[in-house]
Amino acid sequence: MAHQAHSYHMVDPSPWPIFGAAAALLTTSGLIMWFHYNSSMLLTLGLISMLLVMLQWWRDIVRESTFQGHHTPTVQKGLRYGMILFITSEAFFFLGFFWAFFHSSLAPTPELGGQWPPTGIKPLNPMEVPLLNTAILLASGVTVTWAHHSITEGNRKHAIHALTLTILLGFYFTALQAMEYHEAPFSIADSVYGSTFFVATGFHGLHVIIGSSFLTVCLFRLIKFHFTSDHHFGFEAAAWYWHFVDVIWLFLYMTIYWWGS
Amino acid sequence: MWRSLMNLRQISQRTISTASRRQLENRVPEKQKLFQEDNGLPVYLKGGAMDGLLYRVTMGLSVFGTGYVLYELMVASMPKKQK
After folding, report:
1. Closest approach of chain B CAs to the CA of A156, in angstroms?
2. Distances (CA, A) of B60 to A45, A78, A194, B64
3. Residue B17 has pLDDT above 70, yes or no
4. Does residue A103 share a domain with residue A224?
5. Are A34 and A40 in contact (CB under 8 A)?
6. Looking at the structure, do residues A64 and A121 belong to the same domain, yes or no?
7. Of chain A residues 205-224, which have a CB less than 8 A from chain B?
8. Residue A43 pLDDT more than 70?
9. Which chain positions lie within coiled-coil regions (chain A) (predicted)?
10. What is the average pLDDT across A2-23?
11. How confident is the model at residue B39 (pLDDT cuts 50, 70, 90)?
């Protein structure tokens, strides 16, 4: 059997990239069918195939790393660069929505009554549930750091407890936001205020759900002994993503919720 | 009181049956053996029969879906017959 004379990972041929592309095609076409022709079959098909591809692709990465040992320090360095670049791209994504918010709120048009919040809009009180949500996410940042320290110190019990607590805090945030959305006196259709509010906070909420899912997968892997005290990049990537979600919320809170009221 | 609490702790830790104890043990070495077996299988099929099934389902959905998209695109690009 030939052995490689380098520290990089030459992956086995895999069908997931092309199936992932097909899933993206199905999902986007499905959106069009749903918007314009009132049919959700294609969209459902697209989302299911997207889910299947993600599960199998990431399952294979766990196999290649934890079970086959392909993730050398060189490979891990590349993964670190990759995750940082991905998070940076997400930061730019949110930057766009913040730009839209400031564009509309710094110089409110006559149609809005020349003021921000616009005439007739009753904004949410930033000192009520939004403040609680801020505390929840900040606390979850502490617990995820506690989990990381526990992993590096080899303390399995504390790591499991801290990571579980982080995930529960994430669920609590999501539940409170869902309730806020339901109870809000304004909707997405209420002028540019509603648009900027719900699109920015909505995408943030989606990222909280993604981050919570990532952390949950890490919890399963932690329980199944996949992580060692000096090799646990999957967890570190999830923790970075979680801190990013927390920072985005802090900006949302300070600008849209607080300054914008 | 502390001694009875400690006894309670020991008893609750000892009552895990053999079957569920296996689930709390480190089974990574078994997985490492399975996935490092020299059988020529690519990683996406190396886990067993379930891998193949999942692969075929994903391929089925993707191929069928792509075909359906092309069909709908054709239909959408044809002019609607006016009566």
Report:
1. 12
2. 11, 33, 41, 6
3. no
4. yes
5. yes
6. no
7. 224
8. yes
9. none
10. 93
11. very high
Domain residues for the domain of A33 are 1-69
For residue A261, tell me if it sits in a domain.
Answer: no
Summary mean pLDDT of chain A:
96
Q: Which two tokens stand for residue A10?
A: 């030459």
CA proximity to A203, closest of A43, A94, A91, A85: A94
Contacts of A97 (CB under 8 A, 6+ apart): A196, A199, A200, A203
Domain presence at residue A146: yes
CB atoms within 10 A of CB A48: 17
Instruction: Specify the amino acid at residue A16.
Output: W
One domain, residues A159 and A220: yes
Q: Which of A10-14, A85-89, B13-17 has the lowest mean pLDDT?
A: B13-17
The reported pLDDT for the residue numbered B14 is: 55
Same domain, A8 and A126: no
Instruction: Please indicate, yes or no, whether residues A131 and A15 belong to a single structural domain of this protein.
Output: no
Q: Would you say how long chain A is, in residues?
A: 261
Entry pTM? 0.90
Cβ of A56 under 8 Å from any chain B Cβ?
yes
Total structural domains in chain A? 2
For residues A153 and A244, state if they share a domain: yes
Is residue A260 one of the residues assigned to a domain? no
A140 pLDDT higher than 90: yes
- Kindly determine whether residue B32 and residue A56, on different chains, have CB atoms separated by under 8 Å: no
DSSP character string of A121-178: --PPPTTSHHHHHHHHHHHHHHHHHHHHHHHHTT-HHHHHHHHHHHHHHHHHHHHHHH
* Structural domain ending residue among the three candidates A42, A69, A96: A69
User: Which residues 11-40 on chain A approach chain B with CB closer than 8 angstroms?
Assistant: 11-16, 19, 22-23, 25-26, 29, 33
Cβ-based neighbours of B45, under 8 Å, separated by 6 or more: B51, B52, B55
